[in-house]
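Input structure tokens:
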């Protein structure tokens, strides 16, 4: 092995490592066709420089190959009717043999010297293999090194061939030459017109310097070498491909193929990244919308609490005034005498009545305001859901399900988004997700429970116990002058203590009511917010996976691109 061959071999090994890295990424993104292409490409890195012969049925492809290989035998069968749509790969072998690789591909081994440097792939007619067209495009075009378009010399304008040319030239940028076969059947003047027509057509389609050769396989096989046109074709091959140049050309072609695959990946990756960024922004917008509505609901709860507490304070202050007046010395004595000599209730009964009245006023006022407040908050939270539902239906789709590389990812995203929209629609149509029936039914009990919890409901009992020791029970006996004097002195000393105790209970009730309402309503809104956010679990998982995958794919793609640049520069 020469130094050049050793150098090429080393670089092929390095290239194979990059192909393996790209294969790993391809498996990760789940693109089976690209994976198959890369696997085939990986196996062909050490293959000879490959000619892929394409053209319509009856264009003379098989005859052209037989003449090019200068074989006494008919390597590619020539028949008056189209042969089976089988692809034939002709390679060098010490012995003649044919291996059927699959129903559409067979490998032909021939001990022909030129096949040590090149391999030839004979394809069925471009207008007859629609069902198996992928067998050509996926298996051979990506790692072909020279595409040989064979036309009938008398009519090189067949649509199917030029459509296939468009695919190869635009998708893979392969090196291409044109063969006008069966020139012996065309007048020289017509042949020149058709050659010019092919050149002009190729240039219009973006091929800057098209090479066109007019040949006759019949004349070549009949040994009319000077006029068959094959001399010019063989000179082109000798000058540009064989004679030791093929390995380096093959390596450069492989580099180009990898760069083309990366370019395809990069184009799709741009859309996939844009879709990911749009989805992240979409999800952030929904979070902001939910948080904004949640904060607005929090303010609504604060207003409700302030309203309830204000009502409580207003009733409590009035009751404090009543109590302060009712415990004055004159009022106590008057009530005591009246209870003895008249029908008016005594001090104990009056205090008990005040306690019950206080509780009744609080419960009635707070219950009505609380029920209305709960409904208002629930409606506000439902508005949060409606806004999210509307936002879900305006998500932007950038990555389409016909994307060349990421069609499966686009479909998976579409399914996740569809499931999210459907589940959220069901969520919105389920009333109990927003209206807490238990909270509403218990609201009538909530006010007294809150009052009892804050100690206000037992103020009357506390006052009764305090005054019991300060203002003696005068019911059941005649109040003496000494008794009246004692009562006045005792009440004067303890009245302020009683009022202060009541004021302390008012403050404690105020704080307890405020804390309890805030906690109960905030817990309610937190639960609804959690339910709304729970709908996005699968979508969030998809975004997390996408973020990690894109980061990894971009990093590996950049690494491979840089290594290809390095390998290409050293070639």
């Amino acid at each position: 092995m020469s130094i050049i061959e050793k150098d090429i071999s080393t670089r092929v090994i390095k290239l194979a490592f990059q192909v393996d890295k790209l294969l790993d990424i391809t498996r990760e993104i789940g693109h089976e066709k690209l994976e198959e292409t890369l696997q085939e490409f990986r196996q062909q890195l050490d293959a000879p420089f490959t000619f892929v012969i394409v053209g319509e049925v009856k264009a003379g492809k098989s005859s052209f190959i037989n003449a090019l290989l200068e074989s006494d035998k008919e390597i590619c069968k020539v028949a008056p009717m189209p042969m089976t749509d089988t692809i034939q790969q002709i390679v060098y072998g010490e012995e003649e043999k044919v291996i059927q690789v699959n129903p559409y591909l067979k490998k032909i081994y021939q001990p022909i010297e030129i096949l040590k440097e090149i391999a030839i792939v004979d394809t069925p007619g471009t207008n007859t293999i629609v069902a198996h067209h992928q067998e050509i495009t996926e298996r051979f075009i990506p790692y072909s090194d020279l595409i040989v378009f064979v036309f009938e010399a008398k009519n090189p304008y067949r649509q199917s061939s030029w459509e296939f040319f468009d695919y190869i030239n635009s998708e893979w940028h392969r090196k291409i030459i044109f063969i006008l076969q069966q020139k012996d059947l065309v007048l020289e003047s017509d042949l020149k017109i058709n050659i010019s027509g092919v050149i002009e057509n190729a240039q219009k389609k973006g091929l800057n310097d098209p090479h066109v050769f007019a040949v006759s396989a019949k004349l070549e096989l009949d040994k009319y070498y000077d006029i068959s046109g094959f001399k010019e074709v063989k000179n082109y091959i000798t000058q540009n491909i064989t004679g030791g140049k093929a390995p380096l050309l093959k390596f450069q072609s492989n580099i180009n193929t990898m760069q083309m695959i990366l370019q395809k990946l990069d184009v799709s990756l741009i859309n996939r990244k844009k879709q990911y960024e749009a989805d992240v922004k979409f999800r952030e917008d929904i979070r902001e919308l939910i948080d904004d509505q949640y904060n607005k609901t929090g303010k609504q709860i604060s207003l409700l609490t302030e309203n309830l507490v204000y009502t409580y304070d207003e009733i409590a202050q009035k009751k404090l005034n009543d109590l302060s007046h009712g415990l004055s010395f004159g009022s106590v004595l008057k009530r005591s005498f009246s209870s003895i000599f008249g029908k008016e209730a005594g001090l104990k009964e009056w205090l008990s009545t005040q306690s019950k009245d206080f509780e009744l006023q609080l419960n009635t006022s707070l219950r009505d305001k609380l029920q209305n407040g709960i409904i208002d908050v629930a409606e506000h939270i439902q508005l949060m859901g409606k806004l999210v539902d509307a936002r879900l239906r305006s998500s932007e789709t950038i990555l389409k399900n016909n994307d060349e590389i990421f069609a499966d990812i686009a479909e998976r995203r579409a399914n996740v988004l569809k499931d999210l929209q459907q589940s959220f629609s069901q969520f919105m149509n389920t009333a109990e997700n927003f209206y807490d029936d238990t909270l509403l039914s218990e609201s009538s009990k909530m006010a007294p429970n809150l009052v009892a919890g804050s100690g206000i409901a037992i103020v009357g009992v506390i006052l009764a116990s305090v005054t019991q020791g300060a203002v003696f029970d005068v019911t059941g006996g005649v109040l003496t002058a000494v008794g009246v004097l004692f009562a006045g002195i005792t009440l004067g000393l303890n009245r302020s203590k009683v009022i202060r105790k009541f004021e302390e209970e008012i403050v404690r009730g105020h704080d307890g009511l405020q804390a309890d309402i805030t906690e109960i309503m905030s817990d309610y809104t937190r639960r609804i917010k959690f339910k709304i956010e729970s709908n996005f679990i699968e979508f969030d998982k998809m975004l997390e996976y996408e973020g990690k995958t894109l980061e990894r794919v971009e990093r590996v793609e950049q690494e491979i691109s840089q290594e290809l640049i390095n390998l290409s520069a050293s070639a």
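The chain is about 65% helix and 10% strand. The beta strands are 49-54, 87-92, 97-102, 105-110, 118-122, 146-152, 176-181, 211-214.
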